[in-house]
Amino acid sequence: MMGVRFGPAGIPIETPGEGTAAGIEYCRKIGLSAMEVEFVHGVNMKEGKARAAGEAAGKNNVKLSCHAPYYINCCAKEEGKLRASVRYIVSTAQAAFWLGASPIVIHTGHYMGRAPEECKKLVYRTYEQCLEEMRALGIRGVVLGAELTGKKSAYGSLDDIIDLAQHFGLERLMPVIDYAHYHAREGKLKIKDDYARILEKMEDGLGSKAAKTFHCHFSGIEFSDKGERNHLPVSADSPPFAPLAAAWKERGWEGTVICESPLIEKDALVLQKAFQKVRA
């Protein structure tokens, strides 16, 4: 039984030494069992370094995922930007393959004034091209992770990401719920039933496998009527975590929680302790 793993978005702030492998070892030292490798400003990790970090993750039982660059737009209006987006995604997938990491979390793109339905065919085509190139390169075991985005102008509503997972299948593309983004974008999360409705929608759309292999992000968030402004520490209680932990326990959900608070590893430990308290 996998249970629920917790970890930081990136190398822990207080890691002694430098580099991804050192961050992985520090995660294990402080009691965390996951870490997201951040390629948000570009992918510049060589194969040798990636494989060494992957070995450190295996030895320390730390599950790795990756976050692709921020400047991806799978529904861009310009062909050149679409090609660049494919390149960024595939290069992230290549690094993830060397690391033994999955999924790679992706901000799909922006509506740019168009309806979601209008963007959907272009998003399908762009992600399919990514998957084809990954196959051609022999990249196996790396799932694309379409993130629930925090701005209402971005492609990545709950419906958007469930639809993508239905279209491609969970073995190729999975939804990554960022609960802070949902809180900012689609309606405030306060009580267990608010979270249970999200989980139920996932199960109804994708079956029980979605409940046993989830990958998600959590933090506090500041937002306006347009959506997210910036991430906050978990102590902001916006949204609260305990009701989500209770919903996971009640429904038997298992997977990975990546903390995107400014206090990445400290708040990952706060979330883990809160979950253990609810589970007990």
Structure write-up:
The protein is an alpha/beta fold and 280 residues long. It has a single domain (4-279), classed as TIM Barrel (Alpha-Beta Barrel), CATH 3.20.20. It has 10 helices and 12 strands. The protein has an 8-stranded parallel beta sheet with strand order 1-12-9-8-6-4-3-2. A two-stranded antiparallel ribbon has the order 5-7. A two-stranded antiparallel sheet has the order 10-11.
Q: Could you provide a short overview of the structure?
A:
Helix content is 46%, strand content 19%. It has helices at residues 20-30, 47-60, 79-99, 116-136, 158-168, 179-185, 192-206, 209-212, 242-251, 264-279; strands at 4-8, 34-38, 63-67, 104-106, 109-110, 144-147, 154-155, 173-178, 214-218, 220-224, 227-232, 255-259.
Task: Furnish the topology, listing elements before pairings.
Blueprint: E1 4-8, H1 20-30, E2 34-38, H2 47-60, E3 63-67, H3 79-99, E4 104-106, E5 109-110, H4 116-136, E6 144-147, E7 154-155, H5 158-168, E8 173-178, H6 179-185, H7 192-206, H8 209-212, E9 214-218, E10 220-224, E11 227-232, H9 242-251, E12 255-259, H10 264-279
Parallel strand pairs: 1-12, 2-3, 3-4, 4-6, 6-8, 8-9, 9-12
Antiparallel strand pairs: 5-7, 10-11
Helix pairs in contact: 1-2, 2-3, 3-4, 4-5, 5-7, 7-9, 9-10
